[in-house]
Amino acid sequence: MRRTLFAVPNHLTTPTNIEGLLATDIFTLNAPLAATIEESVVHTLNELRPVWDPHSEYQTYSFVRQSQTFPDVMLQSIENGAVPLMGIELKGWHLLSSESAPTYRFTVTRNACNPWDLLAVAPWVLSNVLAGSPILMRPFVKPARFCAEKRNYYWQHERNAKGDTGIMIPSDVGPYPAKSDPISDKPNSDGANNFGRLARYGIMDDYIKAMLAEPVRGVPVKAWIQFYKGHMN
């Protein structure tokens, strides 16, 4: 499945096309386009069935996007009562965002994640920087349970906090919860609202550095961001 996710950028197509965007609005794109891009990723995953199901063992299964609960995408069967095979927490990241890093917060508790569930961040830019269709770049892919465990360990032991580092963990939680189930770990103290910031607890550092160095139309991403920031006022 990891190989399939890495192959998605080479196969993804989307009817979305942006024209007439002001340069000063480049940082506002992620919110309106995130859902469209994530939907396109799901469609592409189903198109890549020969990669993740080479022996045609799961012909009744397909990837389905769901909203407002974890995970964003499930590989599930059309048969009633069938348990999902796996899930993917899928988030888009506009590489030309002013933060120079994903702002997504992952707060799901470890017990809501099956060992084979994945967390994937899909970075994208417009094909002509200020216009065109979204194009995907190499995604960040890690086991979701590992990300939950690493987040909590960082919060309690690695950030050298002086205050309360305790975390309230929900009980009686299992994989593929209902929308109404409480599945988020909650810190006892988080004045800056940083708990769960995926880019803050170390596992994305090398990846983010590499993505900011990626060329877009011959210019590194970080140079585009610096240019646009210099013309925001």
Helical region count? 6
> How is the biggest beta sheet arranged?
6 strands, mixed
Q: What class do helices, strands and sheet pairing give?
A: alpha+beta
Radius of gyration: 19 Å
Order of helices and strands: HHHEEEEEEHEEHEEH
Beta percentage is 15-25%
Form type: globular
* Low-confidence blocks of residues: none
| Proportion of residues in helical segments | 25-40%
Number of strands: 10
pLDDT average, as an integer?
A: 91
Distance between the termini: 44 Å
Short description:
The protein is 27% helix and 18% strand. It contains 6 helices and 10 strands.
Describe this protein's structure.
This protein has 233 residues and is an alpha+beta fold. Helix content is 27%, strand content 18%. It contains six helices and ten strands, in the order αααββββββαββαββα. The strands form three sheets. Strands 1, 2, 3, 4, 5 and 6 form a six-stranded mixed β-sheet that branches. Strand 4 (118-126) and strand 5 form a beta hairpin. It is globular, with a radius of gyration of 19 Å. The chain starts with a helix and ends with a helix. The model has no long low-confidence stretch (mean pLDDT 91).
